[in-house]
Amino acid sequence: MRRDIIIIAFLASRSLAVTFNVPATAPASASALDPAPVGISYEFFTFPAYMNDVASTKQCMQNMRDLSGTWPPIRIGGTTQDRATYDAASSAAVTYSVANEKDAPMTLTFGPSFMSIAGTYAGSVVVGLNREKNNQANTIAAAREAKAKIPNLLAIELGNEPECRLTPLLDDPIPHWRNANARSDAQAQGNWQIAVGNGVGTTPLIQAANSLKNPPEWGAIQLLNVQNATAVSHIKTISHHNYPGGTVQSLMSHSNVIRNIGSFSADVQAAKNAGKPYVFGEMNSATGGGASGVSPKFGAALWVADVSLRAATAGISRSYFHHGTIGNCQYCWWGRYNVGAPYYGAVFATAVMAGGAKIAPLDTGSSNYGGYVVYDSAGAPIRVSVHNSDYFSGSGSRSSQQFILTGLSGETVSAKRLTAPSAESRQDQGQTPTFGGQSFENGSCLATGTAKVETAEVSAGRVTFTLAASEALLVNL
Ligand SMILES: *[C@@H]1O[C@H](CO)[C@@H](O)[C@H](O)[C@H]1NC(C)=O
Ligand SMILES: *[C@@H]1O[C@H](CO)[C@@H](O)[C@H](O)[C@H]1NC(C)=O
């Protein structure tokens, strides 16, 4: 008897639906959407290999383009941009040697063909160049080559995560950098912005800041406080890096996503006040190529989906998810042989924002249940996403949550579900996620499986969906 009572109480608590009202016109607080807000960052030394030796690269990016109509933006950079020297005489795209193919090189050179490869890409390109070696003439020569060879060049970065160079590095101990702090580095960046911008003859050209440490210590605010108008005139975009880390459960938690993105709001506003778009120029679930217990899992896909939408909602124009050493990259969306579960989150977020003009949140971020609404250029809502970030480990029973959307017009809506056996699922271990019933094939990134669209009737402007723990849903209005 007692057992029955407990079960009834349990079911009752589960039936408390979450209600999201969908405003019929874009609220004043809605943020403008970039045509392709979800992008990819490629570690500098390995970019040519991704383009030339990894069959999935083109198809995985094309899947995103097919959804949004715009190739995902790419950024080429990272730790090895500050270990790289341009060699105009080299016929190789990159030259380096490593003891183990899972290592990143401590030093490398790159030739003009590096920029030619980047120039073949049909989407926008940001190239990160060296500042750490303090060889301005070399960086200007490389930037000129980038400008000449990349028709879609969006910006050039000057140095990667400068605050990470403050402690002497055994491999590259350059005194100039050891003495830097946020203020002196902002000044140094300003000098470089002017020198490289003038050297290439393009203003504005520079993606500035590029710090990892959270604002306000490092970021747009401190940079703009230090630099004068001439230096600022060379800034095209301001970039910050973002690696929240944690466990699968804490990473995918919707309220944690809101908290993380919220910590950038003053920095984004400062950039906006200066007329500069703010981007996450490099991000992913955990630093150093990712955490094996977190980054390759479906919970990380739910994080990619949520954080991409939340960043766009907070006025962060583009999020570039980092891809490191091929064959040694836990968070990568694809490699030579596999597609990673997190890729499904990127496809989901791209599909939600495709063709949208504005985005607004549907919730305040106080629970595990979230939602976003996307508006077209006429101001009409076209799509909603709903997120159940309750963690399901894969054992025991999987809870579920009802979501009610209100304020809708029309008679039916269709939906595509993002799901997997659990938050711990990894495609390379046989627990393949699906989005709208389909998966992406290992080694090719081609969609496979039968597409599945759910439909639901709208009654008095309301529609109800049920999401299992660790699922998200795209609703076409
Ligand atoms: C702005 O700062 C740069 C150094 O970053 C300096 O060379 C330049 O003279 C300054 N310009 C003005 C107008 O103060
Ligand atoms: C990917 O590879 C894993 C491991 O071989 C396999 O179990 C899974 O079914 C594959 N999934 C797809 C969609 O290719």
List the helices and strands and how they pair.
Blueprint: H1 2-14, E1 18-21, E2 31-32, E3 38-43, H2 47-53, H3 56-68, E4 74-77, E5 84-86, E6 94-95, E7 108-110, H4 112-119, E8 125-129, H5 136-149, E9 153-158, H6 175-178, H7 182-200, E10 206-211, H8 220-226, H9 229-233, E11 235-242, H10 248-252, H11 254-262, H12 265-273, E12 278-283, H13 298-313, E13 316-323, H14 342-353, E14 358-361, E15 369-375, E16 381-388, E17 400-406, E18 412-419, E19 434-435, E20 439-440, E21 447-448, E22 454-457, E23 463-468, E24 471-476
Parallel strand pairs: 1-17, 3-4, 3-13, 4-8, 5-7, 8-9, 9-10, 10-11, 11-12, 12-13
Antiparallel strand pairs: 2-14, 6-7, 14-15, 15-16, 16-24, 17-23, 18-19, 18-22, 18-24, 20-21
Helix pairs in contact: 3-14, 4-5, 5-7, 7-8, 11-13, 13-14
The chain binds 2-acetamido-2-deoxy-beta-D-glucopyranose (2 copies).
Molecular structure report:
With 477 residues, the protein is of the alpha/beta class. The protein has two domains: 14-27 and 361-476, Sandwich (Immunoglobulin-like), CATH 2.60.40; 34-355, Glycosidases (TIM Barrel, Alpha-Beta Barrel). The protein is 30% helix and 25% strand. It contains 14 helices and 24 strands. The chain has helices at residues 2-14, 47-53, 56-68, 112-119, 136-149, 175-178, 182-200, 220-226, 229-233, 248-252, 254-262, 265-273, 298-313, 342-353; strands at residues 18-21, 31-32, 38-43, 74-77, 84-86, 94-95, 108-110, 125-129, 153-158, 206-211, 235-242, 278-283, 316-323, 358-361, 369-375, 381-388, 400-406, 412-419, 434-435, 439-440, 447-448, 454-457, 463-468, 471-476. The strands form five sheets. Strands 2, 14, 15, 16, 18, 19, 22 and 24 form an eight-stranded antiparallel beta sheet that branches. An eight-stranded parallel β-barrel has the order 3-4-8-9-10-11-12-13, surrounded by five helices. A hairpin with a 5-residue loop joins strand 15 and strand 16. The chain is globular and about 65 Å long. The model is unreliable at 1-13 and 168-173 (pLDDT under 50). Bound molecules: 2-acetamido-2-deoxy-beta-D-glucopyranose (2 copies). The site of one 2-acetamido-2-deoxy-beta-D-glucopyranose has 9 residues, from loops.
